[in-house]
From TrEMBL:
<dbReference type="InterPro" id="IPR003439">
    <property type="entry name" value="ABC_transporter-like_ATP-bd"/>
</dbReference>
<dbReference type="Pfam" id="PF00005">
    <property type="entry name" value="ABC_tran"/>
</dbReference>
<keyword id="KW-0472">Membrane</keyword>
<dbReference type="InterPro" id="IPR027417">
    <property type="entry name" value="P-loop_NTPase"/>
</dbReference>
<feature type="domain" description="ABC transporter">
    <location>
        <begin position="9"/>
        <end position="245"/>
    </location>
</feature>
<dbReference type="InterPro" id="IPR017871">
    <property type="entry name" value="ABC_transporter-like_CS"/>
</dbReference>
<protein>
    <submittedName>
        <fullName>ABC transporter ATP-binding protein</fullName>
    </submittedName>
</protein>
<keyword id="KW-0813">Transport</keyword>
<keyword id="KW-0067">ATP-binding</keyword>
<dbReference type="InterPro" id="IPR051535">
    <property type="entry name" value="Siderophore_ABC-ATPase"/>
</dbReference>
<keyword id="KW-1003">Cell membrane</keyword>
<dbReference type="GO" id="GO:0005524">
    <property type="term" value="F:ATP binding"/>
</dbReference>
<keyword id="KW-0406">Ion transport</keyword>
<keyword id="KW-0547">Nucleotide-binding</keyword>
<keyword id="KW-0408">Iron</keyword>
<keyword id="KW-0410">Iron transport</keyword>
<dbReference type="InterPro" id="IPR003593">
    <property type="entry name" value="AAA+_ATPase"/>
</dbReference>
Length: 273
């Protein structure tokens, strides 16, 4: 039986930075298990740095990130990869690799030291390609794909990894509006059907509010607000964190908060109530 906190991911007193400069400062975060968490914030706020810290791509200056109560740095690479799948903001594919080969790399953590691909591996890779609409690209070199196609292939690799936790840094980059929704629907299905814990940095506030169960607003390397989107995504929070005057209403489709920017030109042009 799986313990309900089997994928508990936490940051405690986390301080992260680069070249002696602190970007995330003394941050505490408990990632809800088997839920979708979206991290938002203005440019330079530290949201991507926070995700990199959770993914153990950055060594903390102080504090720690723990998984199942253990410091993430105590895990071996394969053991950690079986539990946590990571998609950075600008992943780089090996030269000459084909789409099918890249997606199959998601299965590497689950193989024995001398084991080849199993029929289960092949099935999971095929399912990931089909789910992301990239099956017809399987025999093509990744380098020949458009930015949007490449992004969907990387998502397929993450899905093929079948990890309990998925960390994604701006996964909707390079995708048009239709594929952004399709990607977020895929992640939601993985969460609902398999209990996958999803943590993603998103740029678009309304998509974050629509798809997240838990919303984290990062500003100045600290968490300004965290909780259910209906509680967090307020006009005051958006103004304080993003410097954006807005009206927050209800998304007519999802019922989630909908941020409507005002801007200088339209300020006072209509009665905003």
């Amino acid at each position: 039986m799986t313990h309900p906190d089997s994928h508990a991911l936490r940051a405690e007193g986390l301080r992260l930075g680069y070249d002696g400069r602190t970007v995330v400062d003394g941050l505490d975060l408990a990632v809800p298990d088997a839920r979708i968490t979206a991290i938002v914030g203005p440019n330079g706020s530290g949201k991507s740095t926070l995700l990199r810290g959770l993914a153990r791509l950055i060594v903390p200056q102080s504090g720690r990130v723990s998984l199942d109560g253990r410091d993430v740095r105590s895990y071996g690479a394969r053991e950690f990869a079986r539990r946590v799948a990571v998609l950075p903001q600008q992943p780089v594919a090996p030269d000459g690799v084909l789409v099918s080969e890249l997606v199959a790399r998601g299965r590497h953590p689950h193989r024995g030291w001398f084991g080849g691909r199993s029929s289960d591996d092949d099935r999971i890779v095929a399912e990931a390609l089909a789910a992301t609409g990239t099956a017809e690209l399987a025999a093509r070199p990744v380098a020949e794909l458009s930015g949007g196609q490449r992004q969907r292939v990387w998502i397929a690799m993450v899905l093929a990894q079948r990890a309990g936790i998925v960390l994604l840094d701006e996964p909707t980059s390079f995708l048009d509006a239709a594929h952004q929704l399709e990607l977020l629907d895929l992640l939601t299905e993985s969460n609902r059907e398999h209990g996958t814990t999803v943590v993603m940095v998103l740029h678009e506030l309304n998509l974050a509010a629509r798809y997240a169960d838990h919303l984290v607003v990062v500003d100045g390397g600290r968490i300004r607000a965290a909780g259910h989107p209906a509680e967090v995504m307020t006009a005051d929070t958006v103004a304080e964190a993003f410097g954006l005057e807005c009206l927050v209403t209800q998304d007519p489709v999802a019922g989630s908060p909908l941020v409507v920017p005002i801007g200088r030109y339209h300020r006072g042009a209509s009665d905003l109530g």
